[in-house]
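BUG: 3D viewer hangs when loading the predicted structure for this chain

Environment: internal workstation, default settings.
Expected: structure renders.
Actual: progress bar stalls at 90%.

Input used:
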Amino acid sequence: MLETASDNWTAPRFDWRAAPEQLSGQPVRHPVLIVGAGPVGLSAALDCAAHGLPVVLIDDNDTVSVGSRALCYAKRTLEVWNRLGCGDRIAEEGVRWQIGKVFFRDEMIYQFDLLPQPDHRMPAMVNLQQYHLEAALVERCQQKAGIDLRWRHKLVAIEQRPDHVGLTIETPEGRYQTEASWVMACDGAASDTRSMLDAPFTGQFFQDRFLIADVVMKADFPTERWFWFDPPFHPGQSALLHKQRDRIWRIDFQLGWDADPVEERKPERVRARIAQMLGPEVAFELEWVSIYQFACRRIDRFRQGRVLFAGDSAHQVSPFGARGANSGVQDVDNLAWKLQLVIEGAAPPALLESYHDERSLAADDNIRHSTRSTDFITPKSDSSRLFRNAVLELARDHAFARPLVNSGRLSMPTRYSGSSLVSPDIDPFDADEAAPGCNCPDAPLQVGGRPGWLLDQLGGGFVLLVFGEAALALPDLAVGSVHPRVLVVGRDLVDTRGVLSTRYDGRPGTTYLIRPDQYVAARWREFDPARIRAALARSLAMA
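C-alpha coordinates produced before the viewer hung:
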Protein backbone atom coordinates (compact mmCIF):
# COMPACT_ATOMS: atom_id res chain seq x y z
CA MET A 1 0.00 0.00 0.00
CA LEU A 2 1.04 3.62 -0.56
CA GLU A 3 0.75 5.87 2.46
CA THR A 4 1.27 9.55 3.02
CA ALA A 5 3.14 10.67 6.09
CA SER A 6 0.53 13.29 6.87
CA ASP A 7 -2.64 11.53 7.90
CA ASN A 8 -2.02 7.86 7.15
CA TRP A 9 -4.14 8.17 4.03
CA THR A 10 -3.89 4.91 2.13
CA ALA A 11 -4.02 4.99 -1.64
CA PRO A 12 -6.72 2.74 -3.09
CA ARG A 13 -5.87 -0.40 -5.01
CA PHE A 14 -8.19 -1.26 -7.90
CA ASP A 15 -8.97 -4.85 -8.79
CA TRP A 16 -7.79 -6.35 -12.04
CA ARG A 17 -10.55 -8.04 -14.04
CA ALA A 18 -10.39 -9.94 -17.28
CA ALA A 19 -11.92 -8.10 -20.22
CA PRO A 20 -14.91 -9.65 -22.05
CA GLU A 21 -12.68 -9.98 -25.14
CA GLN A 22 -10.20 -11.94 -23.04
CA LEU A 23 -12.86 -14.35 -21.86
CA SER A 24 -14.47 -14.85 -25.26
CA GLY A 25 -11.36 -14.68 -27.40
CA GLN A 26 -13.22 -12.35 -29.79
CA PRO A 27 -12.44 -8.65 -30.34
CA VAL A 28 -15.14 -6.12 -29.51
CA ARG A 29 -15.51 -2.82 -31.38
CA HIS A 30 -15.77 0.04 -28.84
CA PRO A 31 -16.78 3.58 -29.85
CA VAL A 32 -13.97 5.12 -27.77
CA LEU A 33 -10.99 3.67 -25.95
CA ILE A 34 -8.88 5.89 -23.69
CA VAL A 35 -5.28 5.07 -22.79
CA GLY A 36 -4.14 6.37 -19.39
CA ALA A 37 -6.08 6.90 -16.15
CA GLY A 38 -4.46 10.10 -14.91
CA PRO A 39 -6.41 13.34 -14.43
CA VAL A 40 -6.78 13.86 -18.20
CA GLY A 41 -7.82 10.30 -19.07
CA LEU A 42 -10.30 10.11 -16.20
CA SER A 43 -11.77 13.49 -17.19
CA ALA A 44 -12.00 12.28 -20.79
CA ALA A 45 -13.95 9.20 -19.69
CA LEU A 46 -16.37 11.34 -17.70
CA ASP A 47 -16.82 13.78 -20.58
CA CYS A 48 -17.47 11.00 -23.08
CA ALA A 49 -20.03 9.45 -20.72
CA ALA A 50 -21.68 12.86 -20.25
CA HIS A 51 -22.16 12.98 -24.03
CA GLY A 52 -23.62 9.47 -24.16
CA LEU A 53 -20.51 7.72 -25.50
CA PRO A 54 -19.65 4.33 -23.96
CA VAL A 55 -15.94 4.28 -23.24
CA VAL A 56 -13.23 1.84 -22.19
CA LEU A 57 -10.42 3.31 -20.08
CA ILE A 58 -7.23 1.26 -19.68
CA ASP A 59 -4.24 1.86 -17.42
CA ASP A 60 -1.16 -0.25 -16.75
CA ASN A 61 -1.26 0.57 -13.01
CA ASP A 62 -3.78 -0.32 -10.30
CA THR A 63 -3.64 2.74 -8.05
CA VAL A 64 -3.38 6.51 -8.11
CA SER A 65 -0.21 8.54 -8.56
CA VAL A 66 2.48 9.02 -5.93
CA GLY A 67 3.35 12.55 -4.77
CA SER A 68 1.51 15.79 -5.36
CA ARG A 69 2.61 16.09 -9.04
CA ALA A 70 -0.12 18.20 -10.64
CA LEU A 71 -1.28 20.47 -7.86
CA CYS A 72 -3.02 23.72 -8.90
CA TYR A 73 -6.35 23.63 -10.69
CA ALA A 74 -7.73 26.80 -12.25
CA LYS A 75 -11.28 28.12 -12.26
CA ARG A 76 -11.96 27.05 -15.86
CA THR A 77 -10.86 23.48 -15.14
CA LEU A 78 -13.03 23.40 -12.01
CA GLU A 79 -15.96 24.58 -14.15
CA VAL A 80 -15.36 21.65 -16.53
CA TRP A 81 -15.29 19.20 -13.62
CA ASN A 82 -18.43 20.80 -12.24
CA ARG A 83 -20.21 20.07 -15.52
CA LEU A 84 -19.01 16.47 -15.12
CA GLY A 85 -20.44 16.20 -11.61
CA CYS A 86 -17.37 16.49 -9.38
CA GLY A 87 -16.25 20.15 -9.38
CA ASP A 88 -17.79 20.98 -6.00
CA ARG A 89 -16.15 17.97 -4.37
CA ILE A 90 -12.70 18.84 -5.74
CA ALA A 91 -13.07 22.48 -4.71
CA GLU A 92 -14.13 21.47 -1.20
CA GLU A 93 -11.42 18.86 -0.74
CA GLY A 94 -8.67 21.18 -1.93
CA VAL A 95 -7.20 24.41 -0.63
CA ARG A 96 -8.70 27.51 -2.24
CA TRP A 97 -6.53 30.52 -2.95
CA GLN A 98 -6.37 33.60 -5.15
CA ILE A 99 -3.57 35.77 -3.72
CA GLY A 100 0.02 35.44 -4.91
CA LYS A 101 3.04 37.22 -3.46
CA VAL A 102 6.37 37.87 -5.17
CA PHE A 103 9.56 38.32 -3.13
CA PHE A 104 12.95 39.63 -4.21
CA ARG A 105 15.74 38.71 -1.85
CA ASP A 106 14.33 39.34 1.65
CA GLU A 107 11.44 41.64 0.73
CA MET A 108 7.92 41.21 -0.67
CA ILE A 109 7.73 43.50 -3.70
CA TYR A 110 4.06 43.11 -4.61
CA GLN A 111 1.04 40.82 -4.56
CA PHE A 112 -1.66 39.96 -7.10
CA ASP A 113 -5.27 38.73 -7.02
CA LEU A 114 -6.28 36.04 -9.52
CA LEU A 115 -10.00 36.67 -9.06
CA PRO A 116 -10.57 40.38 -8.43
CA GLN A 117 -14.08 40.08 -9.89
CA PRO A 118 -16.76 38.64 -7.54
CA ASP A 119 -19.79 36.52 -8.41
CA HIS A 120 -18.22 33.32 -9.74
CA ARG A 121 -19.24 29.90 -8.45
CA MET A 122 -15.75 28.42 -8.66
CA PRO A 123 -12.66 29.83 -6.93
CA ALA A 124 -9.66 31.20 -8.82
CA MET A 125 -7.43 28.26 -7.88
CA VAL A 126 -7.60 25.08 -5.83
CA ASN A 127 -4.54 23.16 -4.63
CA LEU A 128 -5.06 19.42 -4.29
CA GLN A 129 -2.52 16.64 -4.51
CA GLN A 130 -2.87 14.61 -7.70
CA TYR A 131 -3.50 11.37 -5.81
CA HIS A 132 -6.54 12.89 -4.05
CA LEU A 133 -7.78 14.32 -7.35
CA GLU A 134 -7.44 10.98 -9.14
CA ALA A 135 -9.25 9.17 -6.32
CA ALA A 136 -12.18 11.60 -6.64
CA LEU A 137 -12.29 11.23 -10.43
CA VAL A 138 -12.13 7.42 -10.23
CA GLU A 139 -15.01 7.41 -7.77
CA ARG A 140 -17.05 9.61 -10.11
CA CYS A 141 -16.25 7.28 -13.03
CA GLN A 142 -17.45 4.32 -10.99
CA GLN A 143 -20.76 6.10 -10.45
CA LYS A 144 -21.32 6.76 -14.17
CA ALA A 145 -22.88 4.24 -16.51
CA GLY A 146 -20.99 3.56 -19.72
CA ILE A 147 -17.43 3.75 -18.31
CA ASP A 148 -15.47 0.46 -18.31
CA LEU A 149 -12.36 0.97 -16.12
CA ARG A 150 -9.68 -1.63 -16.79
CA TRP A 151 -6.73 -1.65 -14.39
CA ARG A 152 -3.42 -3.36 -15.25
CA HIS A 153 -4.38 -3.44 -18.91
CA LYS A 154 -1.39 -2.14 -20.88
CA LEU A 155 -1.43 -1.12 -24.54
CA VAL A 156 1.45 -2.91 -26.29
CA ALA A 157 0.53 -2.60 -29.98
CA ILE A 158 -1.72 -0.41 -32.10
CA GLU A 159 -2.71 -0.63 -35.75
CA GLN A 160 -4.62 2.03 -37.64
CA ARG A 161 -7.24 0.67 -40.06
CA PRO A 162 -9.61 2.51 -42.41
CA ASP A 163 -12.62 2.55 -40.08
CA HIS A 164 -11.19 1.62 -36.67
CA VAL A 165 -8.07 0.99 -34.61
CA GLY A 166 -6.83 -2.46 -33.65
CA LEU A 167 -5.20 -2.74 -30.22
CA THR A 168 -3.24 -5.42 -28.38
CA ILE A 169 -3.59 -5.27 -24.61
CA GLU A 170 -1.36 -7.04 -22.09
CA THR A 171 -2.68 -8.10 -18.67
CA PRO A 172 -1.48 -10.28 -15.76
CA GLU A 173 -3.15 -13.24 -17.46
CA GLY A 174 -2.02 -12.74 -21.02
CA ARG A 175 -2.81 -10.61 -24.04
CA TYR A 176 -6.02 -9.96 -25.91
CA GLN A 177 -7.13 -8.09 -29.02
CA THR A 178 -9.72 -5.35 -29.07
CA GLU A 179 -10.91 -2.59 -31.42
CA ALA A 180 -12.06 1.01 -31.14
CA SER A 181 -13.57 3.43 -33.60
CA TRP A 182 -11.51 6.15 -31.94
CA VAL A 183 -8.64 6.16 -29.43
CA MET A 184 -7.83 8.99 -27.04
CA ALA A 185 -4.18 8.87 -25.95
CA CYS A 186 -3.89 10.39 -22.46
CA ASP A 187 -0.85 8.39 -21.35
CA GLY A 188 1.47 11.22 -20.38
CA ALA A 189 4.70 12.79 -21.51
CA ALA A 190 6.38 9.39 -22.02
CA SER A 191 3.39 8.22 -24.09
CA ASP A 192 3.80 4.68 -25.43
CA THR A 193 0.97 5.44 -27.85
CA ARG A 194 2.89 8.34 -29.35
CA SER A 195 6.00 6.15 -29.71
CA MET A 196 4.04 3.37 -31.41
CA LEU A 197 2.70 5.84 -33.95
CA ASP A 198 6.13 7.44 -34.44
CA ALA A 199 4.75 10.88 -33.59
CA PRO A 200 7.56 12.59 -31.65
CA PHE A 201 7.60 15.84 -29.74
CA THR A 202 9.28 18.95 -31.13
CA GLY A 203 10.43 21.79 -28.91
CA GLN A 204 13.13 22.32 -26.34
CA PHE A 205 14.48 21.11 -23.00
CA PHE A 206 15.91 23.62 -20.54
CA GLN A 207 19.13 22.91 -18.68
CA ASP A 208 18.02 24.06 -15.24
CA ARG A 209 16.93 21.42 -12.77
CA PHE A 210 14.42 21.94 -9.97
CA LEU A 211 13.90 20.08 -6.72
CA ILE A 212 10.29 19.54 -5.72
CA ALA A 213 9.35 18.38 -2.21
CA ASP A 214 6.11 17.65 -0.39
CA VAL A 215 6.68 18.57 3.25
CA VAL A 216 4.39 17.73 6.18
CA MET A 217 4.47 20.45 8.81
CA LYS A 218 2.45 22.76 10.99
CA ALA A 219 2.92 26.28 9.71
CA ASP A 220 1.07 29.56 9.99
CA PHE A 221 1.78 30.71 6.44
CA PRO A 222 -1.37 32.06 4.75
CA THR A 223 -3.08 30.21 1.93
CA GLU A 224 -1.24 32.01 -0.85
CA ARG A 225 1.31 31.36 -3.58
CA TRP A 226 4.73 32.66 -2.56
CA PHE A 227 7.54 32.97 -5.09
CA TRP A 228 11.07 34.15 -4.24
CA PHE A 229 13.77 35.46 -6.55
CA ASP A 230 17.26 35.24 -5.02
CA PRO A 231 16.10 34.66 -1.42
CA PRO A 232 18.58 34.71 1.51
CA PHE A 233 17.91 31.01 2.21
CA HIS A 234 18.67 30.04 -1.43
CA PRO A 235 20.88 32.80 -2.87
CA GLY A 236 21.14 33.25 -6.60
CA GLN A 237 18.23 30.92 -7.29
CA SER A 238 14.43 30.88 -6.93
CA ALA A 239 11.91 29.08 -4.71
CA LEU A 240 8.16 28.52 -4.56
CA LEU A 241 5.81 27.64 -1.69
CA HIS A 242 2.25 26.32 -1.96
CA LYS A 243 -0.17 25.01 0.66
CA GLN A 244 -1.91 21.67 0.11
CA ARG A 245 -4.45 19.74 2.15
CA ASP A 246 -3.49 17.48 5.10
CA ARG A 247 -0.82 19.89 6.47
CA ILE A 248 1.33 19.29 3.39
CA TRP A 249 3.28 22.10 1.74
CA ARG A 250 4.78 22.02 -1.73
CA ILE A 251 8.26 23.56 -2.00
CA ASP A 252 10.23 24.02 -5.24
CA PHE A 253 13.92 24.95 -5.31
CA GLN A 254 15.81 25.98 -8.43
CA LEU A 255 19.06 24.00 -8.46
CA GLY A 256 21.00 25.37 -11.42
CA TRP A 257 22.44 23.83 -14.57
CA ASP A 258 25.16 21.73 -12.96
CA ALA A 259 23.11 20.11 -10.19
CA ASP A 260 23.58 16.35 -9.75
CA PRO A 261 20.06 14.88 -9.54
CA VAL A 262 21.25 11.79 -7.64
CA GLU A 263 22.96 13.87 -4.97
CA GLU A 264 20.19 16.46 -4.73
CA ARG A 265 17.53 13.81 -4.07
CA LYS A 266 19.32 12.49 -1.00
CA PRO A 267 17.10 13.10 2.08
CA GLU A 268 19.86 14.78 4.10
CA ARG A 269 20.46 17.36 1.34
CA VAL A 270 16.74 18.01 0.89
CA ARG A 271 16.20 18.41 4.63
CA ALA A 272 19.11 20.83 4.88
CA ARG A 273 17.65 23.04 2.13
CA ILE A 274 14.20 23.06 3.73
CA ALA A 275 15.57 23.77 7.21
CA GLN A 276 17.49 26.73 5.82
CA MET A 277 14.25 28.04 4.33
CA LEU A 278 11.95 27.44 7.31
CA GLY A 279 14.38 27.95 10.18
CA PRO A 280 15.60 25.47 12.81
CA GLU A 281 12.52 25.79 15.00
CA VAL A 282 10.09 24.35 12.40
CA ALA A 283 9.63 20.58 12.58
CA PHE A 284 8.74 18.83 9.32
CA GLU A 285 8.68 15.47 7.57
CA LEU A 286 9.44 14.68 3.94
CA GLU A 287 6.63 12.94 2.11
CA TRP A 288 7.83 12.98 -1.51
CA VAL A 289 10.81 14.32 -3.42
CA SER A 290 11.50 14.60 -7.13
CA ILE A 291 13.87 16.35 -9.55
CA TYR A 292 12.66 17.72 -12.86
CA GLN A 293 13.80 19.67 -15.89
CA PHE A 294 11.69 22.11 -17.86
CA ALA A 295 10.48 21.06 -21.27
CA CYS A 296 8.34 23.10 -23.66
CA ARG A 297 7.33 20.99 -26.65
CA ARG A 298 4.36 19.37 -28.39
CA ILE A 299 3.30 16.81 -30.94
CA ASP A 300 3.01 17.98 -34.56
CA ARG A 301 -0.64 16.91 -35.02
CA PHE A 302 -3.06 16.28 -32.14
CA ARG A 303 -5.04 14.01 -34.43
CA GLN A 304 -3.10 11.09 -35.91
CA GLY A 305 -5.67 9.24 -38.03
CA ARG A 306 -8.12 7.73 -35.56
CA VAL A 307 -5.93 8.43 -32.53
CA LEU A 308 -6.37 11.74 -30.72
CA PHE A 309 -3.76 12.98 -28.26
CA ALA A 310 -4.57 15.01 -25.14
CA GLY A 311 -2.73 16.28 -22.09
CA ASP A 312 0.96 15.57 -21.59
CA SER A 313 0.94 13.01 -24.40
CA ALA A 314 0.26 15.96 -26.75
CA HIS A 315 2.24 18.76 -25.10
CA GLN A 316 4.63 19.54 -22.27
CA VAL A 317 5.27 22.80 -20.45
CA SER A 318 7.19 23.85 -17.36
CA PRO A 319 5.22 23.43 -14.14
CA PHE A 320 5.36 27.12 -13.17
CA GLY A 321 1.95 28.51 -14.14
CA ALA A 322 -0.05 25.31 -13.58
CA ARG A 323 -0.55 24.86 -17.31
CA GLY A 324 -0.06 21.09 -17.63
CA ALA A 325 -3.06 19.34 -16.09
CA ASN A 326 -5.32 22.37 -16.60
CA SER A 327 -4.57 22.43 -20.31
CA GLY A 328 -5.06 18.66 -20.56
CA VAL A 329 -8.51 18.77 -18.98
CA GLN A 330 -9.43 21.61 -21.31
CA ASP A 331 -8.20 19.46 -24.24
CA VAL A 332 -10.82 16.81 -23.53
CA ASP A 333 -13.44 19.47 -22.84
CA ASN A 334 -12.84 20.59 -26.43
CA LEU A 335 -12.77 17.07 -27.86
CA ALA A 336 -15.53 14.95 -26.31
CA TRP A 337 -18.51 16.80 -27.79
CA LYS A 338 -16.93 16.82 -31.24
CA LEU A 339 -16.26 13.10 -31.03
CA GLN A 340 -19.87 12.46 -30.04
CA LEU A 341 -21.28 14.40 -33.00
CA VAL A 342 -18.93 12.70 -35.47
CA ILE A 343 -19.67 9.20 -34.12
CA GLU A 344 -23.41 9.87 -34.29
CA GLY A 345 -23.13 11.21 -37.84
CA ALA A 346 -24.40 14.64 -36.82
CA ALA A 347 -21.18 16.32 -37.98
CA PRO A 348 -18.51 15.47 -40.56
CA PRO A 349 -15.08 14.07 -39.56
CA ALA A 350 -13.68 17.51 -40.41
CA LEU A 351 -15.01 18.65 -37.04
CA LEU A 352 -12.21 16.64 -35.42
CA GLU A 353 -9.62 18.63 -37.36
CA SER A 354 -10.79 21.66 -35.39
CA TYR A 355 -9.66 19.84 -32.24
CA HIS A 356 -6.07 20.09 -33.45
CA ASP A 357 -6.55 23.64 -34.68
CA GLU A 358 -7.98 24.95 -31.41
CA ARG A 359 -5.96 22.96 -28.90
CA SER A 360 -2.63 23.27 -30.70
CA LEU A 361 -3.27 27.02 -30.51
CA ALA A 362 -3.73 26.58 -26.74
CA ALA A 363 -0.58 24.46 -26.53
CA ASP A 364 1.45 27.06 -28.41
CA ASP A 365 0.05 29.75 -26.11
CA ASN A 366 1.06 27.72 -23.04
CA ILE A 367 4.50 26.94 -24.47
CA ARG A 368 5.08 30.62 -25.23
CA HIS A 369 4.11 31.66 -21.69
CA SER A 370 6.11 28.83 -20.12
CA THR A 371 9.21 29.62 -22.17
CA ARG A 372 9.02 33.28 -21.15
CA SER A 373 8.55 32.24 -17.51
CA THR A 374 11.56 29.96 -17.70
CA ASP A 375 13.72 32.65 -19.28
CA PHE A 376 12.77 35.13 -16.55
CA ILE A 377 13.14 32.67 -13.65
CA THR A 378 16.43 31.24 -14.95
CA PRO A 379 18.34 33.98 -16.81
CA LYS A 380 20.76 32.59 -19.39
CA SER A 381 23.32 35.41 -19.27
CA ASP A 382 24.63 38.14 -17.00
CA SER A 383 22.80 40.80 -19.02
CA SER A 384 19.50 38.87 -18.73
CA ARG A 385 19.98 38.61 -14.98
CA LEU A 386 20.70 42.36 -14.71
CA PHE A 387 17.50 43.12 -16.66
CA ARG A 388 15.48 40.68 -14.52
CA ASN A 389 16.76 42.17 -11.26
CA ALA A 390 16.13 45.72 -12.50
CA VAL A 391 12.51 44.80 -13.29
CA LEU A 392 12.10 43.32 -9.81
CA GLU A 393 13.54 46.43 -8.18
CA LEU A 394 11.16 48.66 -10.15
CA ALA A 395 8.15 46.45 -9.40
CA ARG A 396 8.49 47.19 -5.69
CA ASP A 397 7.35 50.78 -6.12
CA HIS A 398 6.00 51.07 -9.67
CA ALA A 399 2.90 49.23 -10.90
CA PHE A 400 3.90 49.59 -14.57
CA ALA A 401 6.81 47.15 -14.03
CA ARG A 402 4.76 44.39 -12.40
CA PRO A 403 3.38 42.91 -15.63
CA LEU A 404 7.02 42.38 -16.69
CA VAL A 405 7.69 40.16 -13.66
CA ASN A 406 7.22 36.54 -14.66
CA SER A 407 7.20 33.96 -11.89
CA GLY A 408 4.95 31.73 -13.99
CA ARG A 409 1.90 33.18 -15.75
CA LEU A 410 -0.92 31.20 -14.18
CA SER A 411 -3.25 29.11 -16.32
CA MET A 412 -5.97 30.94 -18.22
CA PRO A 413 -8.26 29.50 -20.92
CA THR A 414 -7.22 30.17 -24.51
CA ARG A 415 -9.45 32.21 -26.82
CA TYR A 416 -10.36 30.52 -30.09
CA SER A 417 -11.18 33.82 -31.80
CA GLY A 418 -9.53 32.74 -35.07
CA SER A 419 -11.09 29.29 -35.15
CA SER A 420 -12.94 28.17 -38.29
CA LEU A 421 -15.86 27.19 -36.00
CA VAL A 422 -16.32 30.70 -34.59
CA SER A 423 -18.40 33.44 -36.22
CA PRO A 424 -16.87 36.89 -35.66
CA ASP A 425 -18.96 39.76 -34.35
CA ILE A 426 -20.92 41.77 -36.90
CA ASP A 427 -22.64 43.91 -34.23
CA PRO A 428 -20.97 46.14 -31.60
CA PHE A 429 -20.55 44.67 -28.09
CA ASP A 430 -18.90 45.98 -24.95
CA ALA A 431 -18.46 42.57 -23.26
CA ASP A 432 -15.01 41.45 -24.36
CA GLU A 433 -14.86 38.56 -21.87
CA ALA A 434 -17.87 36.97 -23.64
CA ALA A 435 -16.68 37.54 -27.22
CA PRO A 436 -16.86 34.74 -29.83
CA GLY A 437 -14.12 32.22 -29.10
CA CYS A 438 -14.14 32.89 -25.34
CA ASN A 439 -15.34 30.53 -22.65
CA CYS A 440 -18.58 31.72 -21.09
CA PRO A 441 -18.15 33.73 -17.89
CA ASP A 442 -20.36 32.45 -15.09
CA ALA A 443 -22.97 34.62 -13.39
CA PRO A 444 -25.42 34.24 -10.49
CA LEU A 445 -29.11 34.11 -11.34
CA GLN A 446 -32.42 32.58 -10.29
CA VAL A 447 -34.06 29.53 -11.84
CA GLY A 448 -37.57 28.57 -10.76
CA GLY A 449 -37.35 30.95 -7.83
CA ARG A 450 -34.11 29.43 -6.53
CA PRO A 451 -30.55 30.75 -6.73
CA GLY A 452 -28.37 29.20 -9.40
CA TRP A 453 -25.49 29.76 -11.81
CA LEU A 454 -25.42 30.27 -15.55
CA LEU A 455 -22.91 27.51 -16.40
CA ASP A 456 -25.06 24.92 -14.60
CA GLN A 457 -27.97 25.87 -16.86
CA LEU A 458 -25.93 25.69 -20.07
CA GLY A 459 -25.09 22.01 -19.58
CA GLY A 460 -23.25 20.22 -22.38
CA GLY A 461 -25.17 20.88 -25.59
CA PHE A 462 -25.67 23.75 -28.02
CA VAL A 463 -27.59 26.58 -26.34
CA LEU A 464 -29.11 29.85 -27.53
CA LEU A 465 -29.00 32.38 -24.70
CA VAL A 466 -31.52 35.11 -25.52
CA PHE A 467 -32.14 38.33 -23.61
CA GLY A 468 -35.79 39.37 -23.65
CA GLU A 469 -38.80 37.88 -25.40
CA ALA A 470 -37.52 37.89 -28.99
CA ALA A 471 -37.43 34.11 -29.24
CA LEU A 472 -40.79 33.12 -27.81
CA ALA A 473 -42.24 32.15 -31.21
CA LEU A 474 -39.43 29.82 -32.23
CA PRO A 475 -38.83 28.79 -35.83
CA ASP A 476 -36.96 25.57 -36.66
CA LEU A 477 -33.32 26.31 -35.84
CA ALA A 478 -31.92 22.81 -36.31
CA VAL A 479 -28.98 21.99 -38.56
CA GLY A 480 -29.36 18.36 -39.47
CA SER A 481 -30.02 16.47 -36.24
CA VAL A 482 -28.55 19.17 -33.98
CA HIS A 483 -31.22 21.23 -32.23
CA PRO A 484 -30.00 24.09 -30.00
CA ARG A 485 -31.78 24.48 -26.68
CA VAL A 486 -33.14 27.99 -26.04
CA LEU A 487 -32.76 29.77 -22.69
CA VAL A 488 -34.55 33.11 -22.41
CA VAL A 489 -33.31 35.60 -19.81
CA GLY A 490 -36.44 36.92 -18.12
CA ARG A 491 -38.39 33.69 -18.67
CA ASP A 492 -36.13 30.69 -17.98
CA LEU A 493 -33.41 32.60 -16.13
CA VAL A 494 -33.89 35.64 -13.90
CA ASP A 495 -30.96 38.05 -13.73
CA THR A 496 -31.83 39.34 -10.27
CA ARG A 497 -28.57 41.23 -9.67
CA GLY A 498 -27.78 42.34 -13.23
CA VAL A 499 -24.45 40.49 -13.32
CA LEU A 500 -25.44 38.32 -16.29
CA SER A 501 -26.57 41.30 -18.37
CA THR A 502 -23.40 43.20 -17.54
CA ARG A 503 -21.00 40.36 -18.39
CA TYR A 504 -22.78 39.60 -21.66
CA ASP A 505 -23.79 43.18 -22.53
CA GLY A 506 -27.30 41.80 -22.70
CA ARG A 507 -30.02 44.05 -24.10
CA PRO A 508 -33.46 43.07 -25.43
CA GLY A 509 -32.89 40.83 -28.45
CA THR A 510 -29.22 40.04 -27.70
CA THR A 511 -28.58 36.44 -28.66
CA TYR A 512 -25.61 34.15 -27.96
CA LEU A 513 -24.93 30.78 -29.59
CA ILE A 514 -22.97 28.70 -27.08
CA ARG A 515 -21.14 25.45 -27.90
CA PRO A 516 -21.32 22.24 -25.86
CA ASP A 517 -17.95 23.09 -24.23
CA GLN A 518 -19.51 26.36 -23.02
CA TYR A 519 -17.56 28.53 -25.45
CA VAL A 520 -19.24 31.39 -27.32
CA ALA A 521 -19.68 30.47 -30.99
CA ALA A 522 -21.45 33.66 -32.11
CA ARG A 523 -23.54 36.57 -30.84
CA TRP A 524 -25.88 39.19 -32.32
CA ARG A 525 -28.02 42.11 -31.28
CA GLU A 526 -31.10 40.52 -32.86
CA PHE A 527 -32.60 37.07 -32.83
CA ASP A 528 -32.07 36.20 -36.50
CA PRO A 529 -32.89 32.56 -37.43
CA ALA A 530 -30.89 32.65 -40.68
CA ARG A 531 -27.76 33.88 -38.91
CA ILE A 532 -28.26 31.37 -36.11
CA ARG A 533 -28.50 28.43 -38.50
CA ALA A 534 -25.44 29.62 -40.44
CA ALA A 535 -23.37 29.98 -37.25
CA LEU A 536 -24.53 26.59 -35.99
CA ALA A 537 -23.52 24.97 -39.30
CA ARG A 538 -20.14 26.66 -39.00
CA SER A 539 -19.75 25.33 -35.44
CA LEU A 540 -20.35 21.82 -36.83
CA ALA A 541 -17.71 22.25 -39.57
CA MET A 542 -20.47 22.19 -42.19
CA ALA A 543 -19.77 25.64 -43.58
